[in-house]
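Long-time lurker. I teach an intro course on protein structure, and each term I like to show students one example going from raw sequence to a predicted 3D structure in token notation. This year I'd like something fresh instead of my usual example. Would anyone be willing to generate the tokens for the chain below so I can use it in lecture? Attribution to the forum is fine with me.
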Amino acid sequence: MQKIEMHKQYKTRDGRNVRVLCVDVKNSIYTVAAAVLTLTDRDEEYEVVETFTADGFFIVNEEDQYDLIEVKPFVFIPEVGRKYKDKDGFICTVLLTKVPGAYPVMLGFVNGGRDHVRTVTTAGEPILGCSCIFVEEVKG
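-- Reply from a regular --
Happy to contribute to a lecture. Here you go:
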């Protein structure tokens, strides 16, 4: 694992959101303090402050569901055939990268069994009524 840094974003191995509070705790083993978002039995959110090794291990040199994993920023790449999932869970496919007389990228997706076409900027930003906000690339 890599050394935990303040300016990067992390989650736990089991997907919980994390806020790194500091990386210089006065402890010879557990030098990282982070607030880990947790849910109560009633699905109410609260944070628990936990300590980790400099490499993000919850337990020294042992893989655990609480280990810190870096969250890589999502990058939209306007290339024909690439597929992306939007915030609502719909899968969109890049159809064209130069739409004649319009905007740079055209996407096709299925919503409720009906095909739709939307246009976005080359950075994946929605335009002209498109509500696509992409959250991840879909492989395959």
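Some talking points for your students: The first strand starts at residue 10 and ends at 12. The CA atoms of residues 43 and 77 lie 36 Å apart.
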